[in-house]
């Protein structure tokens, strides 16, 4: 590929001296709330996004003021595993620097919004004091590694978590830039002597995502990941993993050569081969991913362009591992499990619903204060889930009533707020912080669910779980293309409606209605609920029903999705 065909981001990475850029200088400049343009790309590798408040963007422009810049900071939390003392640290940071709010993400991590430049370095340092970091939470590298937080099969889940942490560590950039810039670490003489053994000087062509899953729950949405590891358990022991590759959600409205895609199963590997195979997948994408077009740079396009068989043999050559035939697996759902569950060590775990992942105090529902109170009392663990929820983990029999009382006291227990539809909902952040949002999501979905719940109640379907996910644009941050009802922002108040995805995240939805407003969405969905109530088979899910009855086609491959 000629140098000139590379994207601008490739040039920025190459010139960044292993992710240093001019970030240090930019942080010192008091004349603007922003950092240099090129540094807005470099900072992503440190988990930091420059944003501006879109609610007041035009007003600021009218007043000839620079946009109201602030920063989103994302922590890296493999498997979403936090001690409650780490949570207390995160809570403190939210109250000091970040609008009294913590946002749980769809990848088991947390984000802060609204951190102004003068507080950026202090915030990152405090995250490190809380014994967490933000390295590689964003950027063209491997992101937060997901691992199922469900405790039902405890010993297996604990072992999978260890694999997730080891893989996260293995795929971490080795540059010391983060420590130099944010933690005043000693400067190394020359970034030229520094080596990125896996990534090389320009890192990956695009972001890269990995998740482990333990069937039958597909809570991590394994098929949406660049690389997925489906745990194979025999006689209570992990014997290996089925490896999937080439999942991804992002697309662009109207551009038919962009599409969501579900991963292909490459085959089975033993646990000892995991790191070598993962590294081979990463380096193959590093060497063959498209660096000339960021909309065609994810692993899913590398695989579609070259073929799964080519990809498998490249991984085998690079890793020295030969894939065995995939072992059988089956999934039942891609949502979370709520309420109390007991594990094999007799500890209790409470799956707590957090609508839109937003942890803050709103009216009677005081999530930030409630979780602070629980963390202060319960010297143990919280697990962040892949569906923006939180599990209060490892609760003893004697502490259980105390936690229950606190959940009630702060108005945050599940049954107080949530129908099955709501419990199976996700919304991306969108306005006011996301620079790419075309429509509302987190701020709007709750009220749409009120209306859909009323329609479901009318059909005596109120207790039927249906997955619903909304995003403010087609990038797919809440994985809407694998929800039975997917709503993808197209413009203010307008969405493309996708229907018919599999309840277990194993089939994509099909576009059903384009550029629709709320009334138009309700107009089509309500009669479909009625049809579902009248003629569904026993135990049939809404998405399966819509495909079986021909309301939407069975989408066999993402590249056939065109939303106009
Ligand atoms: Fe995402 C970009 C938020 C999970 C696909 N995502 C963004 C940015 C950073 C906007 C930007 O680039 O300026 C959003 C910041 C909004 C804000 O104000 O906070 C953003 N993404 C999120 C989060 C916070 C959504 C949420 O509500 O929880 C999730 C953070 C996860 C984490 O902890 O790391 C988040 N993003 C996802 C997922 C789901 C997943 O990973 O399982 C996807 C779809 C899977 C995938 O990657 O294909 C996703 N985000 C994207 C894309 C489209 C990528 C593509 O291949 O086309 C973008 C845009 C981009 O990369 O250019 C994007
Ligand atoms: Fe922003 Fe779009 Fe992601 Fe929503 S889906 S957070 S609007 S990039």
> What Rg, in angstroms, do the CA atoms define?
23 Å
The CATH superfamily of the largest domain bears the name Sulfite Reductase Hemoprotein, domain 1
Structural class: alpha+beta
At CATH level 3, the topology of the largest domain is Sulfite Reductase Hemoprotein, domain 1
How many β-strands, per DSSP?
A: 21
User: Helical segment tally?
Assistant: 17
Biggest sheet features: 5 strands, antiparallel
- Strand content range: 15-25%
Pick out the low-confidence regions: none
- Tell me the count of domains: 4
What can you tell me about this protein's structure?
With 564 residues, this protein is α+β, with helices and mostly antiparallel strands. The strands form 5 sheets. The protein has a 5-stranded antiparallel sheet with strand order 1-2-5-4-12. Strands 3-15-16-11-10 form a 5-stranded antiparallel sheet. Helices cover 31% and strands 18% of the residues. It has 17 helices and 21 strands. Helix 5 (84-97) runs antiparallel to helix 6 (117-129), helix 12 runs antiparallel to helix 13 (400-409) and helix 15 runs parallel beside helix 16 (518-535).
Notable features of this structure?
564 residues, Sulfite Reductase Hemoprotein, domain 1, Sulfite Reductase Hemoprotein, domain 2, 5-stranded antiparallel beta sheet, 31% helix, globular, binds siroheme, binds iron/sulfur cluster
């Amino acid at each position: 590929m000629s140098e000139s065909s590379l994207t601008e981001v490739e040039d920025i990475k190459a010139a960044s001296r292993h992710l240093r850029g001019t970030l240090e200088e930019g942080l010192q400049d008091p004349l603007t709330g922003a950092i240099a343009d090129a540094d807005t790309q470099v900072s992503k590798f440190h988990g930091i996004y420059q944003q501006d408040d879109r609610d007041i963007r035009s007003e600021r422009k009218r007043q000839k003021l620079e946009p109201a810049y602030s920063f989103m900071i994302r922590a890296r939390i493999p498997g979403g595993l936090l001690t409650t003392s780490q949570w207390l640290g995160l809570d403190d940071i939210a109250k000091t620097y970040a609008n009294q709010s913590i946002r749980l993400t769809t990848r088991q991590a947390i984000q802060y919004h609204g951190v102004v430049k003068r507080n950026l370095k202090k915030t990152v340092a405090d995250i490190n004091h809380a014994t967490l970091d933000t390295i590689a939470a964003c950027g063209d590298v491997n992101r937060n590694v997901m691992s199922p937080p469900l405790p039902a099969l405890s010993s297996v889940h604990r072992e999978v978590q260890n694999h997730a942490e080891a893989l996260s560590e293995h795929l971490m950039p080795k540059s010391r830039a983060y420590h130099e810039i944010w933690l005043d670490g000693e400067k190394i003489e020359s970034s030229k002597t520094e080596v990125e053994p896996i990534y090389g000087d320009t890192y990956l062509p695009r972001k890269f995502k990995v998740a482990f899953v333990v069937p039958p729950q597909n809570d991590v949405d394994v098929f949406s990941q660049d690389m997925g590891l489906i745990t194979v358990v025999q006689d209570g022991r992990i014997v290996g993993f089925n490896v999937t590759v080439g999942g991804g959600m992002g697309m662009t409205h109207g551009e038919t050569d962009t599409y969501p895609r579900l991963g292909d199963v490459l085959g089975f590997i033993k646990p000892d081969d995991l790191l070598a195979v993962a590294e081979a997948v990463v380096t193959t994408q590093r060497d063959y991913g498209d660096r000339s077009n960021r909309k065609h740079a994810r692993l899913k396009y590398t695989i579609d362009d070259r073929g799964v068989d080519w990809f498998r043999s490249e991984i085998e050559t690079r890793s020295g591992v030969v894939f065995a035939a995939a072992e059988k697996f089956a999934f039942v759902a891609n949502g979370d499990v709520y309420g109390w569950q007991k594990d094999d060590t007799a500890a209790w775990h409470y799956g707590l619903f957090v609508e839109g992942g937003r942890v803050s105090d709103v009216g009677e529902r005081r999530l930030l204060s409630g979780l602070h109170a629980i963390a202060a009392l319960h010297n143990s663990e919280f697990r962040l889930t892949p569906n923006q929820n939180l599990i209060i983990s490892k609760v003893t029999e004697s502490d259980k009533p105390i936690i229950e009382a606190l959940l009630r006291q702060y108005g945050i227990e599940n049954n107080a707020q949530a129908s099955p539809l709501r419990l199976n909902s996700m919304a991306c952040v969108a306005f006011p912080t996301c620079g790419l949002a075309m429509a509302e999501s987190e701020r709007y979905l709750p009220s749409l669910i009120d209306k859909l719940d009323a329609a479901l109640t009318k059909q005596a379907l109120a207790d039927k779980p249906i997955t619903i996910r909304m995003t403010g644009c087609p990038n797919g941050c809440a994985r809407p293309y694998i929800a039975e009802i997917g709503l993808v922002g197209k413009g203010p108040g307008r969405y493309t409606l996708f229907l018919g995805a599999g309840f277990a995240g194993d089939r994509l939805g099909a576009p059903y209605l384009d550029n629709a407003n709320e009334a138009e969405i309700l107009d089509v969905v309500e009669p479909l609920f009625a049809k579902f109530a009248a003629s569904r088979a026993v135990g049939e899910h809404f998405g399966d029903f819509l495909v079986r009855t021909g309301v939407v086609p069975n989408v066999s491959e993402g590249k056939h999705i065109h939303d106009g």
